[in-house]
Structures are given as structure tokens and as C-alpha cells.
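[Q] Does anyone have a clean C-alpha cell version of this?
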Amino acid sequence: MQVPAPFEYERATSVEQAIGLLDRLGSEARLVAGGHSLIPMMKLRLANPEYLIDINDLHEELGYVRVGADEVRIGAMTRHRELLESPELAALFPIFADAEAVIADPVVRNRGTIGGSLCQADPSEDLSAVCTTLNATCVIRGAGGERVVTMEEFHRGPYETAVEQGEMLTEIRLPVRPHGSSAYAKVERRAGDWAVTSAGAAVWMDGPVIADARVGLAAVGPNTTGIPAISDALRGQPPSDELYARAGAIAAESCTPSTDNRGTADYKRHLANELTRRTLRRSVERIEAGVRGDQAHDDPDGRQ
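[A] Here you go.
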């Protein structure tokens, strides 16, 4: 039977208290919310914290999706189910619903949080790829105040983040831009499993051409990978299958997968190529569908 090593338990009722406990208990303290990554690691003795600080009571303070004119703010304690069911996110960033629908199972989605997912910093983690794709920033709070870092700065390496001792992730911020949409696709060995390879794409249009685009990959390198070369190749171009193929080829060339029990490196590169094409195409289709819907709403009888 797998059981964790002995540990002490604390329960925080506010962000300030949680930060105070982290500061007082030192490097051997870990926060736990859903616990779906940390607890299995503790059972295997891959993680052996002396103290667990339960932050589930912080959901009221840090569980939210707030939409502003140019930014969406998501509290770090927002549950996966809440992200999946959010109509605001579905309208602005459909990539969230795409990704959340293939994360684990309802039990995990009911308890797991976006903050826990990002702080785990697993190279195969879905929401890390989503946030990279959307050019998110992360708010980290400690006793000395708040600081804001990009996703590239937040993930320093596999299972390593910019959150220092005595700090915690409190919020994720997503810039809102007009005429855009997004999509996510994942290949997994079985439903709810970690990705063999996954890709997220976000596209913004300026009339008939792509104003900007971003692609994020997971499970094909030591970190979730953002690919600026794809953005450079797509800007100013009209969408087409040939353009998506070019982006897919760049994705395959840019990633660094390894052969493991989920597949060979060549197979994962093939998936990076194909999933990049699919998500870019789906993002553009969603934009075009939105435009058609707006036109039909403005002129329901088809009159010009």
C-alpha cells in the first residue's frame, strides 16, 4: 500500500494567512487544493513535504472569472469545472472548453484548480499550453507584495516555476483582443490521460488576413513550448491550408520530444504538425462563423 511520509497539516482561511504560513514554515511546506498531482507524488515518496497547507477555504477569495474591457482575470483557485462551464470563457476563449473537456475526469475537474495545474509545471499539462497560447501573465503574491510574470518566465523548467518560497500564485490574466478565436486538440492514449502531444492555437483576424497568431504545444519538450516563428510566418497572410501546413512544419521542427511509453519522438513531431494545423484551422473557422452570425443578426432577412 502506498502511503505518504508523515506530515503536519495546516488550513489557511485567507491569502495573507497562507503566505504567512509559507513564510514561517519554510521550504518544507507545500500548498494543497485539489491535490491530484501532489498527493500521488507523496504516495510514491517523490515529494515529502513536512507541512501541507490546505487552501480550499480560499476558493471564495480566489475562485473567479472576471471579464474586463481588455483583460480577463482568473483566480488561481478556480476549479476546472468552473472553467469548462464559464460562458464568458466560452465566448472569448473557446480553447478553455476544448482543453477542459479532455482533462482527466469529472472527479478531478470538480476539485482541481487552474493554479494547481500551472504550479505543477508538468511539460504535458493542458492548461499550461492553453495559457501559453493566450499569452497569459501570472500574478504571484508574497509578503512583499505582488509581481506579474509572463508564462515564459513563470515556467522555468519541468516541475519548476517562478513562485519562490513564501509566495503563491493568485491570478492568471488573459489579454482580450478583437476579432479572435482559439482552439485546442490533444492526442492521448486513453480518455483523460496525459497528452501524447497537444496543441493550442489562437488567431486574430484583420479583415481577410491574419493579424496575429500564437501556438502552444505540450508534451514535446522540457517546457510547454511557445513558437514565435509560427506567429511571424502567419502575420499578414490570408488563411489557407498551405499556410497551416507551413505552421505545422515549423511546429514539428521547433519541438524536442523524446521517445517514451507514449510514443516515439518522430510520432510526436508528426502529431505536433497535424494538431497545429487543426487548431489553427478551427480557430479561423470559429472567427468566420462568428462573423456570419453577426451578419445574420444584423440582417436576419438576408437584405443588403
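[Q] Thanks! Anything notable?
[A] The first strand starts at residue 8 and ends at 11.
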